[in-house]
Amino acid sequence: MTRSIHKYMLAFGFWLCNITLMLAQTNDYTPMKDVEGFKTKMNATNKTYKTLKSDFVQEKYLSFMAQKLMSNGYLKYKITDMMRLEYTKPMSYIIAFVKGKVYIKDNGKVTKFDAKSNKIFKFINQTMIDAVQGNLFNNKDYKVKYLENSQQYLLELEPISDVFKDYLKQIKIYISKKDYTVNKLEMTEKSGDYTHMTFSNKQTNSPMTDAEFVVK
User: Fold this and answer.
1) CATH number for the domain including 42?
2) pTM of the prediction?
3) 3-class DSSP state for residue 36?
């Protein structure tokens, strides 16, 4: 079980990587003027999105490697608890969350976990779904700082959960002011290693069946 948890944590870190929009730096952001108004609008908008499709580009930095690891793939999400991330370049890799179950396909082998059977699995499952929805400000496992500029909202999250506060230093979520979808995710680990993920070609409310989330 320990090896499975470790692999799952790595998959989580691998997922939270960079997106191609290298937007303005953090010091271009100022404290959000209307936090409660943002939360209300974000929650209301999320309720109108039943599905989401998006391409992504991922960048991962590891201190022991000379070069950053770049990956491409696509994401599918269907309300309320189905999400599939499929990496297509430079290798094939799938991680899917389907109604409390976690499926990982690596080198043609599918591994299945029950997200509710372990605190780490449960934490990661909920964090990933909330991150795609931009709803991590509702998660009590984080302390949130609210910022904004003319184009985006920025949520800076500091984990306070015992499960991950010794592993994660910070998560940043960049949210479009135009349609309240997530543009970018950044995760920084305690070690200084980081992963970034940028989303593009986003489509909301496209027809999507449960079968599209099956991993086999």
Assistant:
1) 2.50.20.10
2) 0.81
3) helix
